[in-house]
Amino acid sequence: MNLEVLSKKDSKEVLNTIIAKIRDYMNYKNLEPGDKLPSERMLSEKFEVSRSAVREAIQKLEFYGILKSIPQSGTFVADIGQIAINGIIEDILKLQESDFKSLVETRILLELKTVRLAATRRTDEDLERMKAALDAYNEKALNGKDAVQEDLLFHLAIAKASGNSTINTLMLIITPEIITNFEKYHVCDENQAQKGMKEHMEIYKAIEEQNPQLAKQKMKEHFKALYEYCYNI
Question: pTM score, two decimals?
Fold first, then answer.
């Protein structure tokens, strides 16, 4: 299993430009809820960008509930008025890149709740997914290799086990940026990786035993060094 780390300044600028052009097109055509947008191919030709870039912009607008794609039918304006759409898109375009401290704070807040839910709701399949991520992490850590991606795969497996699709989506959104910052700041040294093996196993066992209080406590202990590091940058 691999996590693709996306780097983002240039791609974000392109994405925002396309989003703004889609907004302008919707305003110019006075599109209303339920109206259909041109195809990705037509929009890519009109905006002189790649179809994949248009697709990414549409997916982002879908995420915020502005557009709705229907297989075999096309992309449509969601049930939102034009004034609200313009306001939401304006906010999207103003979104700033998260700093490392904010990412860490968000991750900790999410995961302390997530691990409790996972301990309550986990399935045997969830446990297998977590154990596979643990084994991959341990193999790299024991060989002195960078195990940041495997570490986060374990935490993503916990998010999936929570049974909360919104939490899972939020973790997927912030994870690539967290990996980028881990690599940038060299957060995990060899000793931390070895320590992480023990902490991960304790979290796993608490989830396996369906003990939400213990799972939360072990997750707090696991994040202690990261939290302290974050505030000492």
Answer: 0.63
